[in-house]
């Protein structure tokens, strides 16, 4: 038996001394993720935060409604979804019952079971359950008319012959003459700079007006 286990809420792996069992759902949680029994004030009966929330705000909607919503959403992107039991806990904001961990029959695709309708109504069915590794694989039912399927169908069977939308005609914008002139001038400048011999030392070229007015050796 391992000395450590995972908290069902925060997911931290902690030694057993730091973990307690929730009296309501019977699963292990770290003591940070638990509160004393809020209904009786009994400090020895610990509740996990999920169960505590359930007790404080009784369910307005079905427990698995969020799972239905989640699977409907995923249907737009994929045909197969693998979910760990912990992930489902997170989605529904509650804990799966112990039966879900203990027996595969809990995962049967039976319309008579309220929880099974959560995935069946969304157009999914359980394809594989692994109790040991605590995960379940949902597969989209063929009958499921998910948004993705509808979109694909429309694409495959177009009612009208395909007519492409008139594409915008892009006029090639001619660069203005000034722009060309400026660019040309800049290029010329670069060329001129390259052509000039590099000056060494402190030699300073004489300004052009001096060159014009005086001869080199006849400076007044
Ligand atoms: Zn925790
Ligand atoms: Zn609990």
Strand content: 15-25%
Bound small-molecule species: zinc ion
Helix amount: 25-40%
Structural class: alpha+beta
Question: How confident overall, as mean pLDDT?
Answer: 82
What is the element string, with H for helices and E for strands? EEEEEEHHEHHHEEHHH
Q: How many whole angstroms does the radius of gyration measure?
A: 38 Å
The number of E-state strands comes to: 9
Sheet with the most strands, sense and barrel status: 3 strands, antiparallel
Distance between the termini: 108 Å
Uncertain spans: none
**Strand neighbour order, sheet with most strands:** 7-9-8
Per DSSP, the total helix count is: 8
Shape: elongated
Task: Provide a quick synopsis of the model.
By secondary structure, the chain is of the alpha+beta class. The chain has eight helices and nine strands. The chain has helices at residues 49-56, 65-74, 85-92, 98-102, 114-120, 147-156, 177-195, 208-213, and strands at residues 4-6, 13-15, 19-21, 28-30, 34-36, 46-48, 80-84, 124-130, 135-140.
